[in-house]
């Protein structure tokens, strides 16, 4: 079965079923990763321990994916598990609904499920901004980068990316516990996202306000603290013509972040616009994949 058709079937499966509520493979992988971290992250947590942990965490699953790479049903199912457009949309819509009902406490609780920043003291605009930023960034992490690596390197590439991204979420913190141990996971995720993040940013520009998105990407992304999230979020903010970024609280500390985008601060309605931007970009990717599959 063609790669393009596998991508389409995986997206359709996600649209019908959504993210599995129980027994998601990434939850099981998270338990495996936590066991490795508890055993290997000892003392100062040196970089070599983190490198070893990443290898032990990911390599067995890559080999398993390589052995199954000729089975198209397995490919559809694994790609379905690796992407989450419906789940991302549902989380964002839940925040938007709470904001429209003027239920700020509910909105804070819902946004806390998709962001790592402190949400207890966010006002309505802060909740809105955090939600849109999460939608834009996770559009790359949970959709487009996974598809990119499947197209480029098949199931082994898909598994490598998704598990590396998960390890970065678990270990990629700059604190005393993970400063050195999490270095390998964070750098691997950065490397794997280098091209997909820029393709995602270009996709947002193509399905949004193109000139504004490119302008924000080129001028604002270099000042962002993440080399891959910067282009994605700057282009997304420009495509939506809203202002994102600015200071935020993480683990009790204020993180001063530059302004991204242009125009006005976002409102609750802009959350739906951000989700629609992701959907249009996904349709664009699928159309390109179909055309390329027909030409090759």
Describe the structure in your own words.
By secondary structure, this protein is mainly alpha-helical. It has one domain. Helix content is 71%, strand content 4%. It contains 11 helices and 4 strands; from the N terminus they run ααααααααααββββα. It has helices at residues 3-17, 25-40, 47-67, 72-82, 85-100, 104-111, 124-171, 183-207, 210-220, 229-240, 268-295, and strands spanning 243-245, 248-250, 253-255, 259-261. The strands form 2 sheets. It has a two-stranded antiparallel sheet. Helix 2 (25-40) packs across helix 7 (124-171) and helix 5 (85-100) packs antiparallel against helix 11. The longest helix is centred in the middle third of the chain and has 48 residues, at 124-171. The protein is globular. The model has no long low-confidence stretch (mean pLDDT 94).
Question: What labels describe this entry?
Answer:
single chain; 296 residues; mainly alpha; transmembrane; Cobalamin biosynthesis protein CobD; transmembrane helix
Write the layout of secondary structure elements.
Blueprint lengths: L2 H15 L7 H16 L6 H21 L4 H11 L2 H16 L3 H8 L12 H48 L11 H25 L2 H11 L8 H12 L2 E3 L2 E3 L2 E3 L3 E3 L6 H28 L1
Antiparallel strand pairs: 1-4, 2-3
Helix pairs in contact: 1-4, 1-11, 2-3, 2-7, 3-7, 4-7, 5-6, 5-7, 5-11, 6-7, 7-8, 7-10, 7-11, 8-9, 8-10, 8-11, 9-10
């Amino acid at each position: 079965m063609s790669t393009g058709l596998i991508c389409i079937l995986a997206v359709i499966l996600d649209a019908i079923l959504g993210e599995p509520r129980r027994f998601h493979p990434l939850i099981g992988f998270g338990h495996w990763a936590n066991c490795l971290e508890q055993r290997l992250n000892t003392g100062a947590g040196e970089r070599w321990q983190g490198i070893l942990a990443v290898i032990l965490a990911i390599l067995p699953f890559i080999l398993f994916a390589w052995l199954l790479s000729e089975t198209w049903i397995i490919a559809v199912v694994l790609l379905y598990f690796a992407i989450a457009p419906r789940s991302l949309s549902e989380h964002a819509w839940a925040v938007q609904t709470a904001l429209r009902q003027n239920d700020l406490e509910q909105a804070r609780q819902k946004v806390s499920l998709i962001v790592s920043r402190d949400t207890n003291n966010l006002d309505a605009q802060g909740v809105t901004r955090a939600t849109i930023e999460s939608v834009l960034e996770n559009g790359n992490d949970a959709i487009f980068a996974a598809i990119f690596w499947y197209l480029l390197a098949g199931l082994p590439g898909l598994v490598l990316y998704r598990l590396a991204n998960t390890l970065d979420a678990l270990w990629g913190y700059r604190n005393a516990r993970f400063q050195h141990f999490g270095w390998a996971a964070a750098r691997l995720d950065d490397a794997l996202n280098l091209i997909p993040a820029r393709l995602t940013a270009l996709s947002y520009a193509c399905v949004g306000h193109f000139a504004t998105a490119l302008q924000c990407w080129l001028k604002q992304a270099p000042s962002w603290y993440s080399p891959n999230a910067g282009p994605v979020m700057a282009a997304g903010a420009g495509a939506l013509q809203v202002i994102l970024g600015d200071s935020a609280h993480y683990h009790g500390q204020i993180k001063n972040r530059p302004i991204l985008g242009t125009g006005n601060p976002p409102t609750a309605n802009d959350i739906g616009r951000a989700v629609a931007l992701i959907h249009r970009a996904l349709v664009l990717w699928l159309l390109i994949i179909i055309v390329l599959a027909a030409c090759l």
